[in-house]
Amino acid sequence: NGEYWLVPCLLRSFNARHPTVCPFPPPKVQATHPDCSVVLYFQEQEAECLEIIRSESQTPAPPGPPGQQGCLTEWDGVSCWSAVPVGQSRAVACPDILHVFKKSKALIQRNCTESGWSFPSPPYYNACELEAIGGNNDTEAKASYFVTMKVLYTCGYSTSLAALFLAIGIFSCFRKLHCTRNSIHIHFFTSFILRGAAVFIKDAVLFSDESVDHCTMSTVNCKAAIAFFQYSVLANFYWLLVEGMYLQTLLLLTFTSDRRYIWWYILIGWGVPMLTVCVWVVTRMQYDNHGCWDDHTSLYWWVIKAPILLAIFVNFLIFLNVTRMLAQKIRSPDISKNYKQQYMRLTKSTLLLIPLFGVHYVVFALFPENIGVDARLYFELVLGSYQGFLVALLYCFLNGEVQAEIKRNWGKWQSSMESNVFNLATQDFTA
């Protein structure tokens, strides 16, 4: 967060009697976050000031007695003070940055004396009045908040990954569970695994080195990590869409084999996200190749956001349609009890997931990205990290068919063990 990294240095400059030079790196790329605009502003101001200082150093000084040549241009970490002769003064206005300074039109003055520039009068802190957003205590509290969030979603994704791998193993090991429905479940589980892995990869690439300035970070590794993360998120939503489409197809085409549609489902679940991310990557490289592509303020973010909203909207329509068809089939006297139980078993899981996964995303999509940041982070990181565990619980661990198959194989294994023990005991007795 660029703003919170900047404020402690500004506080030192404002409070100190001597100006403190804040170590802003030279600007290499455009800012990627709204908060980084503060850092970018000071980077640009410092770069312009240093260029003036460099040009002055290359210009020969006019002849005159030592100490009477005036004060040279100086960057004090906040403002650039242009050169003036001895005995004259210079006044500058407070930096005009919203949400950082309360006063942007107040003037600070410095006099040029024989011993150099005088102290700013009035001091920056009194003249500009820094907004109460980033004292040392606030910065530490903010850092502690994000550390807590990271611990929570790390535990959530770890729990989800363990549950998802176990669920995939169960569906793969038992032959009677091999069917189109469970194959779609496995793909859905895999999309959650990719999403969890993408979060860990993104953290490792972007935030492993605390000395890196994230406002100017722009490497191939971080862009690749963000692209993989966006693909996994898209695949996650589109496999949820496939789950809804499959349920609707099952209700509409009762007597049609569903295996003929499996490749279409795979094409939608993995192919559409891949095509979308490729378009997004090419667009960013061509028109907005700045930072790590992790900003949500760019217009090109809609290349990712629009397909996700489309998937949620279509899923919501499927949700309404499936609810209507299910009510009709359950009331129909022509449907056998076994079919009704099959419909209910699959429907109760899918109908729960569709609104659960999409509602909060739609709500936040209606507001700008800088509104409700804490709530957005909590829903998308903390609660979202446990969605994989919830999916494995609904589709596998609480599935009556899976439970019956596990009990049947457990009974067979116990009978086999008892038989082996009996045979060994018999052999020992006869021997």
UniProtKB/TrEMBL annotation:
Q: Does the keyword RNA-binding apply?
A: no
Give the matching Pfam families.
7tm_2, HRM
For this protein, the record's PROSITE patterns field holds:
G_PROTEIN_RECEP_F2_1, G_PROTEIN_RECEP_F2_2, G_PROTEIN_RECEP_F2_3, G_PROTEIN_RECEP_F2_4
Which intervals of the chain form a coiled coil? none
Q: Where in the cell is it found?
A: Cell membrane
Do you know which CDD domains this protein is assigned to?
A: 7tmB1_GHRHR2
Q: How does it sit in the membrane?
A: Multi-pass membrane protein
**How is this protein annotated for GO cellular component?**
plasma membrane
Name the Gene3D superfamilies for this protein. Answer: GPCR, family 2, extracellular hormone receptor domain, Rhodopsin 7-helix transmembrane proteins
Could you cite one Gene Ontology molecular function of this protein? Answer: G protein-coupled peptide receptor activity
Q: Which InterPro entries match?
A: GPCR_2, GPCR_2-like_7TM, GPCR_2_extracell_dom_sf, GPCR_2_extracellular_dom, GPCR_2_secretin-like, GPCR_2_secretin-like_CS, GPCR_2_VIP_rcpt_1
The Gene Ontology biological process terms listed for this entry are: adenylate cyclase-modulating G protein-coupled receptor signaling pathway; cell surface receptor signaling pathway
Q: Where are the transmembrane segments?
A: 151-174, 186-207, 237-255, 262-282, 302-322, 343-366, 378-398
For this UniProt record, give its keywords in alphabetical order, as a comma-separated list: Cell membrane, Disulfide bond, G-protein coupled receptor, Glycoprotein, Membrane, Receptor, Transducer, Transmembrane, Transmembrane helix
**Occurrences of domain G-protein coupled receptors family 2 profile (ranges):** 48-132, 149-399
Q: Does the keyword NADP apply?
A: no
Family per similarity comment: Belongs to the G-protein coupled receptor 2 family.
Could you identify this protein by its name?
VIPR1 protein
